[in-house]
Design goal:
Blueprint (H helix, E strand, L loop, with lengths): L1 H29 L6 H5 L19 H13 L22 H9 L2 E5 L6 E5 L13 H7 L11 H4 L3 H10 L6 H6 L10 E2 L7 E2 L21 H16 L3 H30 L5
Antiparallel strand pairs: 1-2, 3-4
Length: about 280
């Protein structure tokens, strides 16, 4: 009796689940979700070309150094790079002395050897980029109740990450009159900033790059807002995928081996089974 009851209960839940699924599918197909300001005015990333695009692309170390300069002078005031160590910057072409000088320019948590108390000390090449805030409460207090995300993996965490960062940096603007006319309740709240490349159109981050020449490049490149945005997007791509070039270089021999193995396997098949009846 108990077995029959358990089977009936199982069948009931199976039928109920199937019915809910079918009903939900019919509803989704026949009743489209309402149009919102986010659906209509959110834009995908802009088209932008980087030196590392494509299967043969490579990083441009000069661009990466410029991008790091933008991060250091602008972005690091709010965003950390907790998965990147100062010594990793040697891959961008910095010398050992330059890496040490860059690290020393940051303060990192440490311990006083005499008292054992927590203190701040100059960074060393083995340290990782520190957070600009002591904790989440301090981060929220300084950023309109929003916690600035760590940028170590931001280009991997967003669709078309490099283009997304570039688009976000160059996308701040006034709300279109068309949006306010069609969706009057979607007016950007006080303390937020309109950007059509952000998913919900409004974000707490103020435009970080506001004028040409905001960062003075040492290599003579003209530091327009567009150029600085592209450079920092390239740097953050490297931060997220420092082995990108090596991964591409490794991929080609593997593809070649797989192609050779496929041809060899086919020829072996033809040789061994050619006179066999299938």
């Amino acid at each position: 009796m108990a077995r029959i009851l358990s089977i009936l209960v199982g069948l009931f839940f199976t039928v109920a689940l199937a019915w809910s699924f079918v009903l939900g599918a019919i509803t989704a197909a026949t009743e489209p979700s309402p149009l919102t300001a986010e659906k209509k005015f959110h834009l995908g990333p802009k088209e932008v070309h980087f030196s590392f695009d494509g299967p043969f692309g490579k990083f441009d170390n000069q661009q990466l150094q410029r991008g790091f300069q933008v991060y250091k002078e602008v972005c690091s005031a709010c965003h950390a790079l907790k998965h990147v160590a100062f010594r990793d910057l040697a891959a961008l072409g910095y010398t050992e002395a330059e890496v040490k000088a860059i690290a020393a320019g940051f303060s990192v948590p440490g311990v006083d050897p005499n008292t054992g108390e927590s203190t701040m000390r100059p960074g060393a090449p083995t340290d990782y980029f520190p957070s600009p805030f002591a904790n989440d409460v301090a981060a929220r207090a300084a950023n309109n109740n929003a916690i600035p995300p760590d940028l170590s993996l931001i280009t991997k965490a967003r669709h078309e990450g490099s283009a997304y960062v570039y688009s976000l940096m160059t996308g701040f603007q006034e709300q279109p009159a068309e949006l306010l006319k069609e969706f009057p309740d979607a007016k950007t709240p006080s303390g937020l900033h309109y950007n059509p490349y952000f998913a919900n159109l409004n974000l707490a981050m103020a435009p970080p790059l506001v004028a040409d020449g905001q960062v003075e490049y040492g290599d003579g490149t003209k530091s327009t807002v567009d150029q600085m945005s592209k450079d920092v997007a390239a740097f953050l791509t490297w931060a997220a995928e420092p082995k990108l070039e090596k991964r591409k270089q490794t991929g080609w021999p593997i593809l070649g081996f797989l192609l050779f193995a496929t041809i060899l396997g086919y020829m072996s098949y033809r040789n061994i089974w050619a006179d066999k009846k299938h």
